[in-house]
Amino acid sequence: MEEKEFDNINVIPLVDIMLVLLTIVLVTATFISIKALPLKLPETKYTKELPQKRAIELTATKDGKIIYEDKEITLKDLEMLLSSLSEETPIVINIDRDSAVQNLVNLLDLLKKYHLSRISIKTIQK
Known about the structure:
Belongs to the ExbD/TolR family. The protein is α/β, with parallel strands linked by helices and 126 residues long.
């Protein structure tokens, strides 16, 4: 039996496979999003580092939305969450410094309703 000599290589199937892989990468890349909110934290001169315990983080945006675990939640959902927490659960509030004071007061009032007193407001140091 005689072996054939390779004179050329057909690269069209290889190009097809590469185009399909490129399409898959581009389609899946659009579903990946960065979980960052454009939030400007208040500045303080004198802050105290809190111990790194498992705390509930609530974020109040400039336009009054409340974010929990990277999802916007309604006040009704927030009340259900808060009612299920222990009074000793630490809560960290991230609030935009340009937010209305009333947004913070509403959130603190809701926390007080469920006797949650271990509350911290996240700030950045000047």
